[in-house]
């Protein structure tokens, strides 16, 4: 799933502090992974590298002024 401000994303974030293409979430073997992060992106309050995971249910993803909680 592509996440960002652009309307071509699977999940559109309507906030100017989000990048057009902020990051991707991918499912693999029943777990979620965060990949391809750009801009100011944090996972549970810590800066994200190129790839993070697997993500646990309740993980907080922060991009700009937006906070998202992964519930799986």
What does this structure look like?
The model has no long low-confidence stretch (mean pLDDT 88). The strands form 2 sheets. The protein has a 5-stranded mixed beta sheet, with no helix packed on it. A 4-stranded antiparallel beta sheet has the order 6-5-8-9, with no helix packed on it. Strand 8 (60-63) and strand 9 form a beta hairpin. With 72 residues, the chain is mainly beta. The chain is built from no helices and 9 strands. The radius of gyration is 11 Å and the shape is globular. 0% of the residues lie in helices and 47% in strands.
Assembly state (oligomeric): single chain
Main β-sheet description: 5 strands, mixed
**Helix-residue proportion:** under 10%
What structural category characterises the helix and strand content? mainly beta
How does the overall form come out from the CA principal axes?
Answer: globular
Distance between the termini: 14 Å
Low-confidence runs: none
**What is the typical, i.e. mean, pLDDT?**
88
């Amino acid at each position: 799933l592509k996440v960002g401000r652009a309307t071509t994303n699977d999940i559109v974030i309507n906030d100017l502090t989000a990048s057009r293409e902020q990051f991707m979430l991918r499912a693999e073997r029943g777990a979620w992974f965060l990949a391809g992060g750009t801009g100011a992106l944090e996972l549970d309050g810590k800066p994200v590298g190129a790839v993070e995971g697997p993500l646990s249910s309740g993980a907080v993803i922060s991009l700009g002024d937006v906070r998202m909680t992964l519930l799986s």
